[in-house]
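Entry 12.
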Amino acid sequence: MSWIVGIIGLLFALLGIIKLFTLSSKSLPILFFCFGILLIGLVILPYSVDLSQIRWLRLTYRLVCGLVAIGVLCGGIVSCFMAFGVHTWKGKDFQGTVVVLGTLIIQDQPSRMLKARLDAAVAFLKENPKSSCIVSGGQGKNEDYTEAEIMEKYLVQQGIDPSRIYQEGNSSNTKQNLQYSLQVIQQNHLGEQIVIITNAFHRYRAQMFADQLGVTAYSVSGTCRFDLEFMFWFREIAAVLKAWITGI
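Predicted 3D structure (tokens):
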């Protein structure tokens, strides 16, 4: 069993190192690397030190192992909600409103994660020509444009009629995305049935906030590279726990 934990730790550490040089945000790769080193350390320590002879180290080791076990259990439970607690749109001839949730932009281009959402939106909007679309996302730190501006530009370049697209450029988190998008729907008398388009790991939390706002929303996910989805899935676990506790 210990060698399996060691291999998992090695994979986490290697993925953290690789992504440290490819992702603009460094915090997530560093967390992955540190967690990987922690798992490797938990495997190696009993073979390198006689824990029975050092009481404080033995107790610390057991405490850390216990915390890791609790974290894995919590992560597994949350992951089940994230994977199975979503409502996927499977109908045809959708005439409501598509809400595309924003995320990082790079200069005047969507990031890989955002591009995956937009490509899914393009496909959905072309399959459902009577639907409207809200692109939702404000201007983040070190961004020259709102995410909504870049999202609309991309959709238009992909052949979506600009008259179908409405910008919501004031939100700074997922709950605000939905709150402000609902205001746009009411102000412009758009279809009240909603399909949220985001990444797979993000669908559960988006739909949870929609439920809080009294809206029954379906969702569709964009497809991104597995390594990115894998890393952001773990970050989303913490975001879901926070949302459960604080409602934000």
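Annotation: The two ends are 38 Å apart (CA to CA). The helical segments are 2-20, 27-48, 55-84, 112-127, 147-157, 174-188, 203-212, 226-246.
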